[in-house]
Design brief:
By secondary structure, the protein is of the alpha/beta class. It is built from 15 helices and 15 strands. It folds into 4 domains: 1-57, Orthogonal Bundle (434 Repressor (Amino-terminal Domain)); 73-155 and 248-255, D-Maltodextrin-Binding Protein, domain 2 (3-Layer(aba) Sandwich), CATH 3.40.190; 160-235, D-Maltodextrin-Binding Protein, domain 2 (3-Layer(aba) Sandwich), CATH 3.40.190; 257-348, ACT domain (Alpha-Beta Plaits, 2-Layer Sandwich), CATH 3.30.70. Strand 13 (294-301) and strand 14 (309-316) form a beta hairpin.
Length: 353
């Protein structure tokens, strides 16, 4: 059963009209008609809204029977990620934890909740990209979550041009992908002289192309998406710049700190400084005087008056290290809030880069 059929069937079961669904989701009725006829598909956020409105499992609505199985698989051997099957987050799960089942989630909030609610043991969450910078919303979700960071993973982004079976490069007229995917493959799009169309998800674009079966429409996505949706790879490694890498953090319900003697560690935390002159300078001074290296520091406004800043930071070291302990003691003196998000081994990728 395709998404359009699942949506149409469930809407009728709960007794809603297309107009009612459109009003609830703040879209037009023709948009809902297109979803139910298979002409177009909602993005993942809209799928989550639809599932809530239709009182059904978002995994089942988005991904069908396979997704429903993944939503209910044994949680002790399950890792959650945001996106459609075949997303780069899915690929990261496969590479980092090849023996674990995966749980695709419509949103980052759902991926966090899957671990918090015991539906999954871990979550693979993208935090930054070497070309695109930090991933939106993640640093706002981390402080509010009850989860801990227990590891990191680096996944190289390798874009492939996918199309339905039998399609040819010269026959393509449209290429769909996430905005960053399109931006990272400008030379290919310009060279083929095709129209670029934005999709909310790389794997979702691949799924749409597979369901439509139009040989004039292709997608930029992972090799895993080609495998899952039965698409041909017309050209591999089509990104303009080789080396595009996404860094993920691995989240769990329980804190799991490595032995400080086992190797280099990172510690992630968030804090808010007091609203006094030189507060940030004084708060971070302890890291300098104790020889602790700060590898990341980002600020976020967290109040409506734009006067309170929250900082996300990562340092080299373990809280058990005397130097780190002293630095945190000084940080706490000049901070209103301080929350440790986790201490975890540095990934071997850092040594290669």
């Amino acid at each position: 059963m395709k998404f359009a059929e699942r949506l149409r069937e469930k809407r009728r079961q709960v007794g809603l009209t297309q107009a009612a669904v459109a009003t609830a989701l703040e879209v037009t009725q023709p948009t809902v008609t297109r979803w139910e006829s298979g002409v177009s598909l909602p993005d993942l956020a809209q799928v989550a809204q639809l599932a809530e409105l239709l009182i059904c499992n978002p995994g089942w609505l988005a991904f069908g029977e396979q997704g429903e199985d993944e939503m209910t698989t044994g949680p002790d051997n399950t890792i959650a990620f945001q996106g459609f099957p075949g997303a780069y987050s899915h690929l990261a799960c496969r590479h980092a934890f090849p023996s674990m089942e995966v749980l695709p989630c419509p949103s980052f909030e759902d991926a966090f909740a899957a671990v918090e609610d015991g539906k999954a043991r871990l979550a693979m969450i993208p935090i930054e990209n070497s070309l695109g910078g930090r991933v939106a919303d993640i640093h706002h979700l981390l402080p509010r979550s009850s989860l801990f960071i227990i590891g990191e993973h680096f996944e190289q982004v390798e874009h492939h041009l996918l199309a339905p079976k039998g399609a040819k490069l010269e026959g393509l007229k449209i290429i769909r992908s996430h905005p960053q995917g399109l931006a990272q493959c400008r030379e290919l799009i310009r060279g083929l002289k095709v129209q670029a169309e934005v999709h909310s998800d790389t794997a979702g674009a691949a799924r749409d192309v597979a369901e439509a079966g139009d040989r004039t429409v292709g997608a930029l996505a992972s090799s895993l998406a080609a495998e899952i949706y039965g698409l041909d790879i017309l050209r591999s490694r089509v990104e303009d710049k080789i080396g595009n890498t996404t860094r993920f953090v691995i989240m769990a319900r329980n804190r799991k700190e490595p032995d400080p003697r086992s190797g280099p560690c990172l510690t992630s935390f968030v804090f808010e400084v007091r609203s006094v002159p030189a507060a940030l300078y004084k708060a971070l001074g302890g890291f300098a005087t104790n020889g602790v290296n700060i590898v990341k520091l980002e600020s976020y406004i967290v109040d409506a008056s734009f006067t309170v800043a929250q900082f996300y930071a990562e340092i080299e070291g373990h809280p058990a290290d005397k130097s780190v302990d002293f630095a945190f003691d000084e940080l706490g003196y000049f901070s209103n809030k301080l929350k440790l998000l986790g201490t975890y081994p540095q990934n071997a990728f850092r040594k290669r880069s």
